[in-house]
Design goal:
By secondary structure, the protein is α/β, with parallel strands linked by helices. It has one domain: L-arginine/glycine Amidinotransferase, Chain A (5-stranded Propeller). Helix content is 22%, strand content 23%. A three-stranded mixed sheet has the order 2-1-15, covered by helices on one side. A three-stranded mixed sheet has the order 3-4-5. The two termini are 16 Å apart.
């Protein structure tokens, strides 16, 4: 039985987005006006999937703050405010509007990762009641330990995945429900993923490994025809959203929202 998302939280990009963290400066800086339009299209796509989109205002002090995914893990039982591994992002989780919104949904089942733990939920892939958590430069062993302890209290299973080459776990592997997994690069032959129906992402379309399943529809980044076709072949309805400006600062589709 697939889960069903009712709510999504997004934050409109601020003007500082041009100074976002990037591992690929050769792609150039995001064009702010274009990023705003792409964000609007992203919100429209989510709304078409039958969720209520809760929109937070831009915060110009934090260039990466539109990447909501890394601020919290939202599940059907609880939410856990993260502690980003990137120093420039750490205070995003202290923003009052964000905390207020999360607590309006979760109340007493809202938890928090504390120092010296670091976790960025771009490293967390939810498969039913199992959570795969990447060990990366952004998510350390102590962050994993705290996440595991909290999630296990709610009856969840937690598995650590060593990540050597990618920024985040979900840079290279994303669950589309129904046992279908988009998978690329270093994860293709990882025995942890052996039992899934694997859709191997070709190297030239590696960015499109990051798609999101929302209530039976899969949102796919525009410009990656092989992945679009592969996802359609699985029987899903596909909505294409251009995220070219977010790619410039290491962002993909899943990074831009909290879905629960």
């Amino acid at each position: 039985m697939s889960k069903h998302f009712k709510n999504v939280i997004v934050r409109i990009p601020g003007t500082g987005i041009c100074d976002g963290i990037t591992s690929n400066p050769s792609l150039g800086q995001p064009i702010y006006e274009k990023a705003l339009v792409q964000h609007e299209h992203y919100v429209e796509a989510l709304a078409k999937c039958g969720v209520k989109v809760n929109v937070l205002p831009p915060n110009n002090n934090f260039p990466d703050s539109c990447f909501m995914e890394d601020t919290a893990l939202c599940t059907d039982k609880c939410a856990i405010i993260s502690r980003p591994g990137a120093d420039t992002r750490r205070d995003e989780t202290q923003l009052e509007d964000f905390r207020k919104m999360l607590s309006s949904f979760y109340g007493t089942t809202l938890h928090e990762i504390t120092a010296p733990g670091t976790v960025e939920p771009g490293d967390i892939m939810m498969v039913g009641d199992t959570f795969f958590i990447g060990k990366t430069a952004r998510t350390n062993d102590e962050g994993f330990r705290q996440m595991k302890e909290i999630l296990e209290k709610y009856g969840k299973t937690v598995i650590q995945v060593p990540v050597h080459e990618m920024l985040h776990l979900k840079t290279g592997v994303n669950y589309l429900e129904d046992n279908n997994l988009l998978i690329s690069g270093e994860f293709i032959n990882n025995p942890l993923f052996a039992t899934f129906n694997k859709i191997v992402v070709p190297e030239e379309e590696a960015y499109a490994a990051n798609c999101i399943w929302v209530n039976g529809t899969v949102i796919v980044p525009a410009g990656y025809p092989k992945i679009k076709e592969a996802v359609e072949h699985l029987g899903y309805k596909v909505i294409l959203v251009d995220t070219s400006e977010y790619r410039k600062i290491d962002g993909g589709l899943s990074c831009l929202s909290l879905r629960f």
